[in-house]
Amino acid sequence: MESNLKVAFHTLGCKLNQAESEWLARQFAEAGYRVISGEEADIYVLNTCTITHIADRKSRHLLKLWRARNPGALIIATGCYAERAPQELAQVGVDLVVGNQQKIHLLDVLKAEHAPVAHCSTEQPVADGVNRVRSFIKIQDGCSDFCAYCIVPQVRGRERCLPMADVVKEVKARVVAGYKEVVLTGTKIGDYKHKGMNLKQLVEQVLAVAGVERLRLSSLQPQDVSTELLSLWQDPRLCRHFHLALQSGSNSVLRRMRRRYSVADYRQAVSLIRKTVPDVAITTDIMVGFPGESVEEFEESYRFCEEIDFVNIHVLVTLPDRARWRLRCQDRWMID
Fold first, then answer.
1. Starting at the edge strand that comes first in sequence, how are the strands of the sheet with 334-335 ordered?
2. What is the gyration radius of the CA atoms in the chain, in angstroms?
3. Distance between CA 121 and CA 38 in Å, rounded?
């Protein structure tokens, strides 16, 4: 049997990117490629992020590193950075740049531009490649909120949701493949709606799939939390973890960010979660140094985080002159 070309996937950024990388890995495996990890590959695929300049820099560094280590490899960049600035990635030795709009067709694009590229295998394709315990499943994409700091609507477009039947089918396939935990992910999963069905109804359908051992929701916003949704956590298979986006604990900063909730709204959502779901873990994201943020506004945000008592916070420090704030937070929370 002829050996198949080896392809390696690497993902930067959000859980939605991870879900899409998993899906691509399965597509490549079914087409006869050997999906590998930690080896020298014939083809490298980087699913990029562009949420910050640091994410951009990580992408360029990885792509240059792959080119230096394996000059003969085919290097592909896809994802949000590829959507936003394809010309920048073309300058660092990338052979093929495919934005988010064409990501789903990556295999076809590769075959069209670099055929022939692989021989189909008669063996059962295995793309567990990326993960055998936890599988990320995309249920929604895009955002229509246009928060002041966020580029997501530009690189992923407006909100759109996958049909419930497609999501359930994907969950069944992941269960058959042996995954123990399913994570439903997207840009704003709380806004899931398809043909009159909402997120609560989707979760109910997923929990009805035989063999689902654990189910997790990737991230919610305060306005997504309701008594009806939380009632589902009576099922012990739903993970007692909520990642509830905050960004700032100061109302004035939240208004400048164009977020759709207040500190009081957030506090109420957390109170409802803790009342309904015993022993819950709540994590969040915070931005430090948002343009115009004063020391007083930072202190408001810091005190609010202490009040909520998060299990963990992903802190994004946006300005270099906020180094003292970085030092204030780093002993307690994850810092970028």
1. 241-243, 281-288, 312-317, 334-335
2. 21
3. 22
Residues 80/111, Cβ–Cβ less than 8 Å = no
Give the span between the Cα atoms of 45 and 7, in whole angstroms: 7
Q: Residue 321: its pLDDT value, please?
A: 47
Q: What angle do CA 12, 16, 21 make, to 5 degrees?
A: 65
Residues 44 and 72 reside in one and the same domain: yes
Which contiguous run of DSSP H or E holds residue 272? Answer: helix 263-276
- Cβ pair 258, 146 in contact under 8 A: yes
* pLDDT tens digit sequence for 41-66: 999 999 999 988 889 999 999 999 99
Q: What is the pLDDT of residues 171-212, one digit of tens each?
A: 999 999 999 999 999 999 999 999 999 999 999 999 999 999
- Two tokens, residue 41: 């590959």
**Distance between CA atoms of 149 and 243, rounded to whole angstroms?**
20
- Domain with 301, as residue range(s), is 240-336
Domain with 64 in it: what CATH number? 3.40.50.12160
Exposure pattern of 274-309 as b/e (b: 16+ CB <10 Å)? Answer: eebbeebebbbbbbbbbeebeeebbebbbebbeebe
Q: What are the structure tokens assigned to 259, written together?
A: 């977020």
Domain assignment of residue 60, yes or no: yes
Please say which residue of 114, 141, 173 terminates a domain: 114
Residue 247 lies in a domain: yes
Q: 150-160, pLDDT tens digit by residue?
A: 999 999 999 99
Answer yes or no: do 215 and 262 share one domain: no
Number of domains within the chain: 3
Residue 176 domain flag: yes
Q: What CATH number does the domain containing 287 carry? A: 3.30.750.200
Residue 255 backbone dihedrals phi, psi, to 5 degrees:
-65, -40
DSSP state letters, 205-219: HHHTSTT--EEEE--
